[in-house]
Amino acid sequence: MDVQKVMVVGAGQMGSGIAQVCAMAGYDVFLHDLQETYVERGLATITKNLTRQVEKGKMTEEEKSNILQRITPSVDLQNAREVDLVIEAVVENMEVKTSLFAQLDEITPPHAILATNTSSLPITEIAAATKRPEKVIGMHFMNPVPVMKLVEIIRGLATAPEVYETIEAMTRKLNKVPVEVNDFPGFISNRILMPMINEAIYALYEGVATKEAIDEVMKLGMNHPMGPLTLADFIGLDTCLYIMETLHEGFGDDKYRPCPLLRKYVKAGWLGRKTGKGFYTYE
Ligand code: CAA
Fold this sequence. Notes:
Elements: E1 5-9, H1 13-24, E2 28-32, H2 36-55, H3 61-69, E3 71-74, E4 85-88, H4 94-107, E5 113-116, H5 123-127, E6 136-141, E7 150-155, H6 161-173, E8 177-182, H7 189-205, H8 211-222, H9 228-235, H10 237-251, H11 260-268
Parallel strand pairs: 1-2, 1-4, 2-3, 4-5, 5-6, 7-8
Antiparallel strand pairs: 6-7
InterPro entries: 3-OHacyl-CoA_DH, 3-OHacyl-CoA_DH_CS, 3-OHacyl-CoA_DH_NAD-bd, 3HC_DH_C, 6-PGluconate_DH-like_C_sf, 6PGD_dom2, NAD(P)-bd_dom_sf
GO biological process, one term: butyrate metabolic process
Keywords: NAD, Oxidoreductase
């Protein structure tokens, strides 16, 4: 199938990044959210990213304006009746996602693929909320989307092979590298990344080292671009906790138990960069 028109639902950090890379690859994109202010904020982030590219001489003003013209703001979900693909990037909450997918199933044309950017929720369960589970698939982008090369593509139990192939081909068109993964909690990325972050939080909690020392060990010793506590702040501590809980519940194994310090920070509202405070303080 040839994808031409895309709707990205959710104009936050991930959704706006996904809309940006789709528009950069030549797709017409609706950037949809519940309120105009959310969509405007997403568009402002995209504009800022593209302006930086122009300033660095990596893009012309004309290219920037062509990319922006391909993005249409949307607060009316009925716009989805025109699209070939929806990529959902809303809050990580199963009820919100299943209700949205049921609506999209009614609105979108029968050929449309419904993809989710969920970082750990079961694709199979989201697909079951629709009458087209064979057209539901996971398309997991990494943050920051315009920079990170990986897209984990997750097959649900019922995902059709041709749907997988369409999404794989599109991912390459987005200048990203697709990696095929089956539907298990946390997929591959978060099954491995989050226990590492959780272990770093345990090391801090137990007083093994300072936060700076923990980050330095992983940056200089393992060549990670960010230490695990800096990365946790970057991802959002609420998201980290949510993913650990999904792993803990999904596998039923105590090795995935979220660190009490992570719970405490989330309860305090110290969610990382987005709230100005997490393990570190941000201006
Ligand atoms: N949006 C768009 N572009 C950005 C950006 C952002 N938020 N942050 C940085 N960039 C761009 C910069 O403009 C720069 O572009 P050019 O090469 O074109 O000049 C490039 O990225 C490098 O940026 P910097 O030199 O400012 O900074 P850096 O070299 O330290 O890189 C980083 C920043 C790419 C974020 C790097 O620190 C990094 O890779 N960190 C780890 C990120 C990571 O692990 N992400 C995965 C998180 S887990 C996840 O997303 C999945 C999940 O489900 C939780």
